[in-house]
Amino acid sequence: MNATELKGLISRTDARERARNADALLRGAAERDGLIDVAVGTVDSPVGELFVAVTTKGLACVGFDDQDRRELEDRFAEGLSPRVVVSPRATDDVRRQLDEYFGGARRRFEVGIDHRLMSPFVRKVMAQTAKVPYGEVSTYGAVAKGIHHPDAARAVGAALGQNPIPIVLPCHRIIGASGNLTGYAGGLHRKEFLLRLEGDPMLFPG
Amino acid sequence: MGRQTPPPFERFLEQHGPTVMRFLVVAVGPEYADDAYQETFLSALRAYPRARDDGRLDRWILRIASRTAIDHHRARARRPEPRATLPDRPLAGPEPPDDALLAAVASLPPKQRAAVALRHLLDRPYPEIAEILGCSEEAARANVRAGLVTLRERV
Q: B9-85+97-154 is classed in which CATH architecture?
């Protein structure tokens, strides 16, 4: 008997395969035992695959597919909890509501929000933004005025760019005073898509 | 300054899962490895919010896995099942398993079995094996040596 024989009992490839299968059961058991603090999952959508994170407080993040998923997970580990685990069941409700929204059947999201990934200022800006209803738009200046910082339109723009929960917290409804879409962390094509979906007739006549 | 928060658990699982599974297939046997794997990582997940990433998380998880393996044998010794030492189904994979070797490994005392797996399956150096098993380096060497002697006798 030598060391090589022991290694023949289980190859690295077999171990990896076997671990991957066991991981699926492990995630189920972790959920059953209440050991998941940040449940993550993906949602297919017309604006690309979305990466969502749900905590016991609510929805904490919606990421677009061109965002670095590992970087987002690092933020969750540091800002929420390192117990970040894939859990389709825990993300089901958000998935269903997003499906309905993209299907035109939902105008408001009914989910709890976990604000911990936002600075106090971002949080304030997002609360003001949430007042803009589906199908309407507002401007950076109006949001700045709404939070009693009338000179802070630029800071408002920067804060909107840091929205960790786009689509659900509708930062896409804030545009420039001239009617330009101006900017969007997820890319202007996505902002335009969302506004067209919500159908503001002033912005997109015909 | 190293990062203190451990990595997101999914990444930790991706990094260490295959090594832990490989260790457990030898340390508890192919038929119990999946259960021991789940138990190991559930224990880790329970303790994870308090874990600190000091660059030794690989030893931390192997320590939990070793303890799980040793406890598994103790529990089975208390409640023996009518089961042969040989696995009742063959291992998947291109190479047929060496049943004689597997049976010989299964006959080792749990700590020797874990020590041999850490040294000759995972190639861990003795100071790390001592850290993982919570014993002195001399004890780690003695456990590996004794295990190998038995294996050579039986295979």
A: Up-down Bundle (1.20)
